[in-house]
Amino acid sequence: MVEKMLLELLSLEKSLGLKKTNKYSTQGDKVPVLQTNNGPSLIGLTTIAAHLVKEAQQKQLLGSTAEEKAIVQQWLEYRVTQIDGHRGKDETRIILKDLNQYLEDKVYLAGDNFTLADILVYYGLHPIMTQLSVQEKEKYVNVSRWFNHIQHYPGIRQHLPSVVVLKNRLYTSGH
Amino acid sequence: MRLYLTEGNPHCLKVVAAVELTGSRCELQFVGVEERVVPFLAHSKLPCLQLDNGNYLFSTNAICQYLFTLRGKEPSDLTNQWLEWEGTELQTALSGALYMAVVQGKREEAAGALQKKCAYIDQSLMKRSCPFLAADAITVADIVLWGALYPLLSDSTFLPGDLKALRSWFERVCAVAACRKAVESILKGKGLQALKPYLQKQPAPSQRAETPASNEPEGGESADRVLTEEEIGAAAESWSKGLSAWPKPKPIEHPVLPQPNEKNVLITSALPYVNNVPHLGNIIGCVLSADVFARFCRLRNWTTLFVCGTDEYGTATETKALEEGLSPQQICDKYHAVHAHIYQWFGISFDHFGRTTTQRQTEISQDIFRRLLDRDFLLQDTVEQLRCESCQKFLADRFVEGTCPFCNYEEARGDQCDKCGKLINATELKSPQCKICKGTPVVKSSKHLFLDLPKLEARLVKWLEDSMVSGNWTPNARFIARSWIRDGLKPRCITRDLKWGIPVPLEEFKDKVFYVWFDAPIGYLSITANYTDQWERWWKNPEQVQLYNFMAKDNVPFHSVVFPCSLLGAEDNYTLVNHLIATEYLNYEDGKFSKSRGVGVFGDMAKETGIPADIWRFYLLFIRPEGQDSSFSWSDLLLKNNSELLNNLGNFINRAGMFVCKFFEGRVPEMELNDDDKRLLAQATWELRQYLQLLEKVRIRDALKCILNISRHGNQYIQANEPWKRIKGTDADRQRAGTVTGVAVNMACLLSIMLQPYMPSVSASIQEQLLAPPQCNVLTEEFVCILPSGHQIGAVSPLFQKLETDQIESWRKRFGGQQPDEGSANQSKTEAKPAAETKAAVAEDAGKDADPQRAKQLAEEVTKQGEVVRELKAQKAEKAVIGAAVTKLLELKKQLVLAEGKTPEAPAQKGKKKK
């Protein structure tokens, strides 16, 4: 688990165009830690990710208005508590169902703008999406559309293999 | 904005506090627990915030942060980090703890589940020395953590007194007006109980999240530490001093008495009740733990007295005597001998193992009683009791049976109904019956004496706080003692209408005796008095003596509250407990020990298995329920014996000795230390110091890991230097082989000393094999060269034996509480039979024994062990090591197949060739 998070952070650094390589370690084999040059180390995936975004001078990825900032934070939290904490098929289904409903009228998680929430939720969902059948991907059509969009966003996919999402429906909506 | 809330929902506290603190204009609306407010979520998620444009925020932390952001207070890295930690780490522990505390009423377990998180916050606060978590002023982080913790920490028993930084931070945030308002609006003055209706509707959080009943130590194997040059240099210097700089072991002369200007340690182990045979849980809970500590203290040259004995008075003895047709005294004599014999077999090093039915016990108890009476700490009251006129005596609860007043069960006991489980007052029983003569008893009133605990409370509290701050109390002991004080002390009856006890020395009470709880702890004093006339030098000498009480947690109230009150009230300068060491419970194969159902291993049966006492000691100490319950498991015993003792510790010590014998004619060779050797010495020294620190804090199970770490380092060292190859090489190679062998055999000698508290016989046989000088048996902070070059060692032989799966399985069956006929059928099956038939029998057994839980556990072990094997192969480890690991893997797989209820397939050999 923690190795995956470290890979995500390295990919994020690349996406953000950060040159200098940060030093990472882990805490208790489950939480990533960033050793900063100035000040104490930072602990936790979303904390470190937000820090990297600021370091790269791309604050807009954390949201531009107070509301957008709150929504970004909310989905970052959702990523580490719900998506990473999910146990078993039932909980996965609830996550996909909720996200599908939420994304019905949205391009990105925060609405009209691409943010850090899209990046980290995309990373977090990747293992779940690769497991889905074509039929299931059609069932969660909004999630699939959003996911496909993010994985083609320039510089985001990095270390992860692409997940195939069909554009034409195979199954009729009766299912 | 509109904030949706539910009453009694703990998550609402922080959002309301944030609304208040930021002065946000926000409408509060209370809705039902199950109400779905957020349209896109399939389940109810409350609290949530509806924004003016109709969007929703459903994360409590994001809501809090949003309210702060609106006031211009943007998040910082540090506030983000606290919020993330709260969401991922704290909430997992907290949801379990709240559920346990409020719904299940397991307050103590709840406190345990939260303990580590509290300590983490405390440490962070201390490190930054700021009044608040992320800055000098209050931030969103303080509100979020405070809101999460408030329901539990507002009850002072959950706030450990030693976490001072946490406590003052918590009190600081509680004092903020916004927080007080939030508490009022969500909890409505009902405290923790206000959460009950809400929590009851939540699914039970999975317990495994925070407190798995694991037998593995926390933190696992210590990673290779970075050693400084100074440490390495100092270790090499100490080494070269040799035994000349070593203190001499202090000879033990009885009677051991406290010495001025020395450390004097008085150790007691809870007195086992005489009428039962102790089981493994009793043994690890007190006598064995206390023994390890006593042996450790002696090795540190501290003046040490270790006493224990059987607790013999009381109703239970009388009942048992009736059952067996003996007199109470005969029963006591019989079982005292049983106890003494068991502890002797386990190698418990009491200075004196006494009993409570002695003249001394009567004298001292009556003396304390008179002093309490003179000082007006005793009250008189009448109690309604059942009396049997034909037997001419008042009936203790156990001597009455009748119909349950609640469920009409006809065989309810005098104190409890076995059918409905309700507690009963004997006088409430319908148609009560005397168990002895079957006559009908009548209700009579009887006068009794009570210890006035409320009057002593102020003194007790002051003493307790001092003792807990300066002494070493285990967290459960602190918690239980505090809960008793918090719930309020009531006068406690100290007399009984019985015969088998110490007579109350007052004319008016001449037919009565002391209640056992009053005089049993006095047994520690009287047992010491039977050991030496100068017992008061131990027991009335708090200035010079440090008193350690060992017990299981059920005994804590008597040792922390009731008995100290007796001694404080007697005003005779008694030595009161400084360090109260309480263990959690040991389960048996995920169930409970039960004498009546024949489940579990009892003291006398351990010997019958043929497994040496030291192996039992090792395993029980390895799984000592320190901090949480643990469980005895046969397959784990096999695993620990074969992996830790045989392959790690035994293997190292044996190889070190063998190299000396085989390559150097039994004489320790010349040693020329290079940097690698010095580094190893420093590593061993570091582990040794850890061990000393841990044992000083009575963290017995953790300290045992240090021993195993040293031998692990030793094995790696031998592996890396390959003395068996170098001995055939050039002069320089042979010199190197000598050094490595010499260092290794000295490490084996150090291990023998460190091992002594845990495995005294094994320690002695190592020293015998190495012909180690007896004066090495002292523990200091240094690792010195005890066996100099030229030292002649003796004959070397293996220390441990492998335990086999079928052996273990047969014991598991035998002690598993199965029906006797089934057991004997199994036994006949395991007798020698032609191979084919045995296989069939195994298959039959297998189906019957399918055990999904065990299978799951085994499957995990197989995966783990598989990784170990791969790792070893990748590192090109020695063949024998890989072989042993593979054997273990195959064994595990075999067990797994059995546990899954399948027939073991083709013999293991084939599988091996495929790879």
TrEMBL record, chain A:
Organism of origin: Huso huso (Beluga)
Taxonomic superkingdom: Eukaryota
Signal sequence, renumbered to the chain: none
Keyword Protein biosynthesis attached: yes
Name of this protein: Eukaryotic translation elongation factor 1 epsilon-1
Annotated ranges, domain GST C-terminal: 51-174
Alphabetic keyword roster: Elongation factor, Protein biosynthesis
Listed InterPro entries: AIMP3/p18_C, Arc1-like_N, EEF1E1, Glutathione-S-Trfase_C-like, Glutathione-S-Trfase_C_sf
One GO MF term: translation elongation factor activity
Automatic annotation (TrEMBL), chain B:
Compositional bias ranges of the Basic and acidic residues kind: 845-864
Keyword Nucleotide-binding among UniProt keywords: yes
Protein keywords: Aminoacyl-tRNA synthetase, ATP-binding, Ligase, Nucleotide-binding, Protein biosynthesis, RNA-binding
Bias type Polar residues, positions: 203-214
Protein name (record): Methionine--tRNA ligase, cytoplasmic
Coiled-coil residue windows: none
Organism the protein comes from: Huso huso
Positions of the GST C-terminal domain: 72-198
Compartments, as annotated in UniProt: Cytoplasm
Catalytic activity: tRNA(Met) + L-methionine + ATP = L-methionyl-tRNA(Met) + AMP + diphosphate
Gene3D superfamilies per record: 1.20.1050.10, Glutaredoxin (3.40.30.10), HUPs (3.40.50.620), Isoleucyl-tRNA Synthetase, Domain 1 (1.10.730.10), Methionyl-tRNA synthetase, Zn-domain (2.20.28.20), S15/NS1, RNA-binding (1.10.287.10)
GO molecular-function terms, A-Z: ligase activity
Region Disordered, residue ranges: 200-225, 815-864
Domain GST N-terminal: 1-75
E.C. number(s) listed in UniProt: 6.1.1.10
Organism domain of life: Eukaryota
The keyword Membrane appears for this protein: no
Enzyme class, UniProt record, top EC level: ligase
Family listed: Belongs to the class-I aminoacyl-tRNA synthetase family.
Residue span(s) of domain WHEP-TRS: 854-910
